Amino acid sequence: MTKRVDPTAFPIEFDPREQRMRGRAVHNNAMFDVPFISHIAGNLWVGGCQQGLNLPLDIVHVVSLYPWERYKTHDAVQSESYNYLYDAGVPEKRLLKAIVDRAKFCVLDAPTLVHCQAGLNRSNLVATLVIQDLFAYSAAGAIELLREKRSPAVLCNDRFVEYLLSP
Question: Among the CATH numbers 1.20.1540.10, 3.30.420.150, 3.90.190.10, 3.30.365.10, which is that of 36-165?
Fold first, then answer.
């Protein structure tokens, strides 16, 4: 049997800045309807992931907090960092600092995507700390910015918020 190919077919690229995910978060039963990735400030992008989703061509660094699913990258990607974090307790301080330091280095260099599964908690825990250091926001101000730019469901994990707002 000969495989039939459509000679009129053309490649279709889905842009994760436009393609959306919807659902209900485990934490606080928060409903969300967000693009896979959102621009926050400067070179910082935050989002979620779906296996094989094409990474936008202008993103050159990926800091993943959900390595179970990965973006399909392109030749311009300069670095990828994969970290196993869970959306439960706050990660150990030394590990969190190492991830935040890597993310800050990347954001200072070029467009960087910090992502987890849905782009609500883990990625925004890291993004809040990056925003505080690089853009001189308070923790509360950084959380407000992330919720404005991405979704009101951002940081629906109360443990992460308590950690970020603690002195």
Answer: 3.90.190.10
